[in-house]
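Backbone geometry:

***
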Amino acid sequence: MKQDIHPQYQVTTIHCACGESFQTRSTKKDVRLDICSNCHPFFTGKQKLIDTEGRVDKFRKKYNKA
């Protein structure tokens, strides 16, 4: 096996957009997430639409049935 070809494995802090942060080990120094297990609808049971480009509103306007 070749020596000195593997990246450094270090303790890193994961930061979520909801404000949650926790420590784990990774090859990256600092990681930022949009959704974590603390705010993801699958784990919380709450439906929260994340619409950054207006896709949900566009769909509702297009297929709005009375």
Notes: The longest helix spans residues 55-62. Helices lie at 41-44, 55-62. Residues 8 and 25 are 10 Å apart (CA to CA).
